[in-house]
Write a structure and sequence with these properties.
Blueprint: H1 3-6, E1 22-25, E2 28-37, E3 40-45, E4 49-52, E5 61-66, E6 72-79, H2 80-84, H3 90-104, E7 108-119, E8 122-132, E9 138-148, E10 153-160, H4 170-179, E11 197-203, E12 208-215, E13 218-225, E14 228-230, E15 236-241, E16 249-256, E17 260-265, E18 271-275, E19 291-296, E20 303-308, E21 314-326, E22 331-333, E23 340-344, E24 348-353, E25 357-362
Parallel strand pairs: 2-13, 14-18, 21-25
Antiparallel strand pairs: 1-2, 2-3, 4-5, 5-6, 6-10, 7-8, 8-9, 9-10, 11-12, 11-16, 12-13, 15-16, 17-18, 19-20, 19-23, 20-21, 22-23, 24-25
The protein binds zinc ion.
Zinc ion binds next to loops.
Amino acid sequence: MNNADVHDATVGTCDPSGTGSFVTTDKGVVSTVARHDFDFRLTVPSVWLVEHSPKATMEGGQVFYSTPGGNAFFVSFGNLTELTKRFGTLDDYRDASIARIRAQADVSGRLVVSKELRIRRHRAILSNFKGITGAGGVADVWSLDLWCDVKDRYYSLYGDVVRSEEFQDFPSLFESTAQSLVCHEPPPGSSPRLWEWADLGFNTKSKVWFLELFNHSGLIEAYQASEIVLKGGSASQYQWPQRGERPLWHVRERMSARDLGKIGYDERGTLVVEPSMDARPSEQVPEVFDSITYAYSLADARGFVEFREGDGAVLKKIEGRWISVENLTHRTVGTYPNIRLSARREDIGSITVTDAHIVIRGKTGSPSR
Ligand SMILES: [Zn+2]
């Protein structure tokens, strides 16, 4: 981290490095997550719902973050070269934005905060406009304007405080959220927080696809996009029930970090996930065996299968796979901690081993009991 990045980065309930922290709200303490949209990153409370404006592309648009308490944040971004044809300086642009807020909502009021920040080596202006709307309501709008010459993009963050009681300290939250903006490359010297598995899914409220990265402490990073391409890699279905009366499931495609390589956006805004370079060795099922025992690793949730001789000796072990069984008579064996599931050779129809999976099918037709 260089000095420019340290400058003014002192306020915060929200960790600008995106390395995981917490924000206090009227619902208690909630964790933050580093969210990627259109190749920029913002660290926000994980409970904020992300939506993209309908016409947003890599060229420009809006990303909205709505809070459980009814407050709204959004990031507006677009081409900087085009913008500078109309506005000579960042200050001119900021002043025009405030004038637009006044005109649009018929607000009378004034700028109560105008503060210069350094974010990712760029000059940025933090503003707070307070006033009374034509309809008699209170206007309290926080904004941050930043021009990123590296990506040739402008970014404007807005926070419209409708229910300030949702946050203990909204000004600090807005400023630290703004400080978390990664407008071009990742911050120097910041090693990405290690994730262990990823879930691919579709948010039916936001109407965006997402790839969420987890480790054992929870959700740490998320990518949103209208389209996602995963080049290779292996995945497995994962699901859990929605709590409540109505029968409903959440379903994801789950991947392991070791199966995925680089994650990034292409110029069309598609999220592209490259395959991992370290492929697992292909494995063969032994021709002769008496039984199999199998179990699931508590360390990585993957399964392993042991092929055994008549005397119980292990001939071969294939590990690190997702296991599926179909129509297979299998039973529990062993005493803790050496516990397994087991199937006899004569009850097994076929065993298919791939790079990521093992499918064990029982003899079809007459399941033995
Ligand atoms: Zn930048």
